[in-house]
Amino acid sequence: MPTSEPIDIFKERLKAARALRGLNQAELAAKAGLPPASVSHFESGPRKPSFDNLKALATALDVTTDYLLGRADTPEASAATVGRLHRDLGKLTEQDLKLATEFVDLLVKRGIKEGE
Amino acid sequence: MPTSEPIDIFKERLKAARALRGLNQAELAAKAGLPPASVSHFESGPRKPSFDNLKALATALDVTTDYLLGRADTPEASAATVGRLHRDLGKLTEQDLKLATEFVDLLVKRGIKEGE
DNA sequence: ATGGAACTTGACGGTTTCGCCAATCCAAGT
DNA sequence: ACTTGGATTGGCGAAACCGTCAAGTTCCAT
Fold first, then answer.
1. pLDDT band at A115, cuts 50/70/90?
2. B78 phi and psi, to 5 degrees?
3. Is the CB of B54 under 7 A from strand D?
4. pLDDT of the residue at B52
5. Is the pLDDT of residue A4 over 50?
6. In what residue span(s) does the HTH cro/C1-type domain sit (chains A, B) (predicted)?
7. Closest Cα in chain A to B93
8. DSSP for residue A82
9. Which positions in chain A touch B88 (Cβ < 8 Å)?
């Protein structure tokens, strides 16, 4: 069951994405061009980023804004990679799409225990 | 000289996405739970949407926020076609993602020669 | 126990968006 | 010419975010 109630997905996602990149708040802040305290406010306080800061954070972390916003479930390794793959999916025939689905399904199941 | 840089991509994208759905500002506003004037402000004025309103707009239009923000090139939100697959991609490890990419790449190339 | 690094929290004034309303413009259609 | 529906624009107070700073916490290493 989806234990994570949507208390504040953004905070979680931001922290997760930052951890994924192995950055501390100050480093992320530098990359995104904003003060360290702001990052902390986003992760712990009630603040939500503005239009521009959201973009800056997503770019600095190389994740989609949809992920940060909780609109997409993808931990989003590389936006470019996933983007290309997704674009290519559109070129597939119906049955090839099914093939691809099965293949990915396999990978997912196989990779679950290798979480970390 | 990249002077041709759109001054405000968001405005364009918002208008485009709305047109794509065949909605007028009032209708979009209703769907997103906003006053019609706000939509107009976004499309024509200097205002940029807040965190919550950005989400609302993207949801109402069924596009990614990355698209609206100009961080992605395709509206590509309605993952209805490849929904499950796209969702699963997020669960893949970096290297499995690469595998999947190659696999799909193969299918695409193979499918092209077989006509449509 | 002392020190430092990472992070949290609270406050401040300044800026921007918020929702709302009213006025206005514009391109039809009648 | 007049009206109508869609869109633009501007002003209003309220609310939220902004960057900044200063103190506080927690935890780890010396």
1. very low
2. -60, 85
3. no
4. 97
5. no
6. 14-68
7. A111
8. H
9. 101, 104-105, 108
